[in-house]
Specification:
4-stranded antiparallel sheet; 2 domains; 11 strands; about 300 residues; about 20% strand; alpha/beta; globular; Alpha-Beta Plaits; 5-stranded parallel sheet; 11 helices; Rossmann fold
Length: about 300
Amino acid sequence: MSKGRILLVEDDQDIATMLRIYFTGQGYDIEIARRGGDALQRTQKQVPQIILLDINLPDTDGYTVCKTLRSNSRTRHIPIIFLTEKDERSDRIAGLELGADDYITKPFDIDELRLRVANAIRAAERMGLTDPRSGLPSGRLIEDALRELLRKENWAVVDIRINAFEPFKDKYGFVAGDEVLRFAAMMISDTVDKQGSPDDFIGHAGGDNFVLITAGANVHKVVGVLRKRFDEEVQAFYAYTDREQGGIKLDDRLAPLMTLACGVVTSERKFSDIREITEAATEARRQAQPPQRKPSV
């Protein structure tokens, strides 16, 4: 199992290659962006658990990238460690004032960087900021995002749950279950990136439960695409026999293939606290259970 997903924003090919080899060997998944604009696009599609960010980039500087990440509800929680050749006190302070979590100067000790990465990821998980499997905001960050809605208009909250997840995990194991959760997180993020807006919020409330906050006018289109994509793409996680028979045989019954259940509430209804929002979204999700899928032909 991966120790975490790292996004390295570094245009120096030698450093990027060295860090990729090292952190891959340490059990991390690492992705490289060589420009600041590429990094911002990648974080919208798949949220990393930490970002290693060089200050000197070809198209912009790391300070601008950090400021943009911290101003977006989908990325503001990601730990950021600056990598830079600058060692002036004013440069370090500038980075920390923008919300960076740490700062390490080149040339750096690779073991020290590894420890800083591990500590930053663990700290975020201990504080309930991210789910370790999906890397998405969880716990307190979801609550904060919901509280912000009480002062806004034209919003929608979608309670998303994976139907028939437990039978799948019982047969295929918890590792396969975690792979499905990571797939769901990536699929939701990619769909929202294409159908929603950069300000949309995606959270992992725990287990097989996700939360999406988006614009009220666009929510039903997004939900329709989510359900369709999930139905089509989740079949890759099943063995051929289970796909053909339309589910998993458990004793004398057939547990269906996984689907998404989505409950929607909008700002057209008045709420006084976030508990009312989550209860209403959960009830809407229960009432919106999709019909069981027919076996493949």
